[in-house]
Design goal:
By secondary structure, the chain is α+β, with helices and mostly antiparallel strands. The longest helix is centred in the middle third of the chain and has 36 residues, at 25-60. It contains 3 helices and 4 strands; from the N terminus they run αββααββ. A two-stranded antiparallel ribbon has the order 1-2.
Length: 89
């Protein structure tokens, strides 16, 4: 327990292999707090990403986006100096 008090934790070994870790209460609480803050940050970032995705998806679902894509697909395109004609509907 003196190693735990002096260093915040101790590794318990068996035949020179780590078996367990004993932490001080302060070290445990600090680690638990860090994990909790990381989870909150990840949830916030995921919510922001979901919101941005939903906005982009909504913009693609608008009538203007549909017409813009149709206009784009109907234009002739230059491919290595040759014109590709739009397909007939």
């Amino acid at each position: 327990m003196s190693a735990v008090k002096n260093h915040g934790g101790a590794v318990i070994t068996h035949r020179n292999l780590p078996e367990a870790v004993v932490l001080s209460t302060n070290t445990y609480l600090a680690l638990a707090g860090m994990a909790h803050r990381a989870c909150e940050r990840d949830a916030r970032l995921l919510a922001e990403l979901r919101s941005r995705f939903d906005q982009r998806l909504a913009s693609l679902s608008s009538p203007q986006a549909h017409q813009a894509l149709r206009n784009f697909m109907d234009e002739a395109v230059m491919l290595q100096g040759e014109v590709r004609a739009p397909t007939m509907k």
